[in-house]
Sequence to fold (378 residues):
Amino acid sequence: MTGPLSPMDDLPIHQVAEPVRRVATSDRNFYDRYYFNCYPLPASGDDPEFFLVVGMGQYPNLGVTDAFAVLRRGDDHVVARASAALGADRSATTVGPFRIEILEGLQRLRVVLAPDDALGLSVDLTFDGNVPATLEPRHFRRELERVTFDTMRFVQTGTWTGTVTLDGTSLDAQSLRGNRDRSWGVRPVGEAEPPGRRAAGGPANFFWIYSVMQFDDFTVSVVLQEDEQGRRLVEEAVRIPRDGGEPEWLGRPEHRLEFAPGTRDVTGASLSFHRPTGETVTVDVALVLPNYIGIGTGYGLEADWRHGMWQGPLVVQEVRRAVADIDATLRMFCPVDNMARFTLRDGDDTFGGTGLFEVAAIGPHAPSGFESFTDTAP
Fold:
């Protein structure tokens, strides 16, 4: 291998006049990431035994790659995480005991967290998509003239086969469902940067809903982000048929969140989609099992472990928390991935499904009645 070249440079995939391992921008915050979630489909009325989230990212301009798995099971919050120097071959999706294998592009992937002496959690799961991978709208935000978000992402639901093991015990891994996404572009990563003039105006809010719902014959994907006043930064609501047909735009998405008094913990939700022709599609959301993905995984709450932060040539760690001991104030700054049940009503038709309801209400948000970062629900 010579200089910046890698095996991928033998493929006709170049997008800019650089070797593949060099991205088009020198922005330190460029990233390229995998996300997966997985849960056993419970019998009617039962809760799933666990909700697992796995992620892996590369940060070419920081020279770092990292991965995490976070398992919610009962009162247990178990995180396995690893960070390493990013090598020359960006197609090598391995970080310590973590490995992602592309078995069939846009269809089948294998996710492995191999047994490791430092970890109590291990995973060997294969994802098989049941709808086409579907591109979402571009996510863009600028703060004080600097681009802080400029990302693309695609989403896909599917089924899983394989094993999940915790402390030597195999968990129920029958009838596994979940979704995955791939995103890349610019977003805040790595060591915290000096805020400079931005400190005078305070940090930006982050009000976010991302829901991926699996029904028998279709998937519904919803994404929206709002600024402090409730203005939309990105929004989308589509129905993706399993037969491979074109996604159907459902119209403008609206939301209603219920918060536990004295907190920002979301306890219930509903969504509605308003077609230009006047019809309304509604979704009732029953939150079943929350996974606090901001705790221990690198999403920015801990100063010593952030996605893209340099930890050394290779570091593998485990973090465990009792969910009951996670401070309510900390949860206010933590996005939550909820395994949820959905009831969708479209005219005379009603459909039941399960999936992801990811939500964050961080900072001021006038429609929710939050004027600052520390306001809570009455």
